[in-house]
């Protein structure tokens, strides 16, 4: 039961980039500009996590913590159709919670931990879309930064514990810096969240839009994975080749 498993992104190349997919017992972070596909990838994983996979993976239930109110059941229905899964069955296997503030988000994860303790082995994926939006609002400005980072660190520690204690894949989305200085850098996108997120995330992936409507995924500063990038598309059936 404690064997590490990997969840498909829906794109063959993207999975290859991740050496199989989004890994359990780890935190995978994606960041990128608006429309780059973070929420679509979250929705796709809600479905692929329910399907059997390599190494004896049987599929399982999903927890989705939504901070931006972008969870859409109609998106999930069309992704379920693509994989020939029963629409209602797919929706029933997703435990959805909306987080209204950063404190609420933290509290929800406490409740999730308690629930996972009661229902061991049922849930395989925990999504937080996005990890940072409430923190940017609740702790605004330079003076609040140390406090914000402290609270964010506590939240990430809680996610780590959940991923390792219950063999769960934790998937979080993050935003990018939008200051002018950033545009002049060779790396056009930098994630927010500072050292706290950088150290807490096991794998960090940047997503970006390119001209032909495609998206590019790139592993960001990983010691384990090759520093390469792949193209993928967003369809009504979710992330695809
Ligand atoms: P944000 O930072 O604003 O939350 P995001 O990275 O979460 O952005 P998504 O919501 O995942 O972005 O992606 C939205 C994009 O997905 C849209 O710009 C659109 O191009 C594409 N998209 C959404 N639904 C479909 C669909 N059914 N078919 C094709 N493309 C779609
Ligand atoms: Mg989004």
Write the layout of secondary structure elements.
Elements: E1 6-7, H1 12-17, E2 22-23, E3 26-32, H2 38-48, E4 61-66, H3 73-82, H4 87-92, E5 94-98, H5 102-118, E6 123-129, H6 133-138, H7 145-165, E7 169-174, H8 180-183, H9 194-200, E8 203-209, E9 215-219, E10 229-235, E11 238-240
Parallel strand pairs: 3-7, 3-8, 4-5, 4-6, 6-7
Antiparallel strand pairs: 1-2, 8-9, 9-10, 10-11
This protein binds adenosine-5'-triphosphate and magnesium ion (MG).
GO molecular function, one term: double-stranded DNA binding
GO cellular component, one term: condensed nuclear chromosome
Protein name: DNA repair and recombination protein RadA
Order of helices and strands: EHEEHEHHEHEHHEHHEEEE
Radius of gyration: 17 Å
The low-confidence runs, each spanning 5 or more residues with pLDDT under 50, are none
Q: Compounds present?
A: adenosine-5'-triphosphate, magnesium ion
Total strand count, please? 11
The fraction of residues assigned to DSSP E strands is: 15-25%
